[in-house]
Give the backbone structure.
Amino acid sequence: MSTHPIRKRNRLENYDYSQPGAYFITICSKDKRWIFWNVGASTARPGSTAHLSLYGRIADEKIREIEKRYRFIKIANYVVMPNHIHLLLTNCFDDSGRAMLAPTPNISNVIRQFKGAVTKETHISLWQKSFHDRIIRNEKEFLNYCEYIDNNPLKWKDDEFYIT
């Protein structure tokens, strides 16, 4: 019998993460280290990258490359925080917003590729294992997560990932 604790499943069981949908993703740094913001940065303005460290700028660059790599993945919104990243992704939609029938990448594969690209460029492993996701179920939820992402840097000290 194993003495290791049983890990809680991160993904919704029996859900097809390649089907059309929107997803709120949180990816944490290893041990929740503050590595994505410059030392001394305590807040950030949405849309600004001046507060980002070298690792934060690389992560920001690789997020922007996701849409180029995956034709049907769109980044609706994102933010790079000191020790985590929030992404609001949609998949399987064409430029007019219609659902596509073509096979699309699984969200886990997209996140794995993103983390790997950052690791390859930085030459160190920055990431906690896996990621957290929330399947967005309606437009109101989608808009609430957009607002959360926009306000997250301004409310950093109140964030659940704020660790001193």
In short: Residues 54-69 form the longest helix (16 residues). The first strand starts at residue 21 and ends at 28.
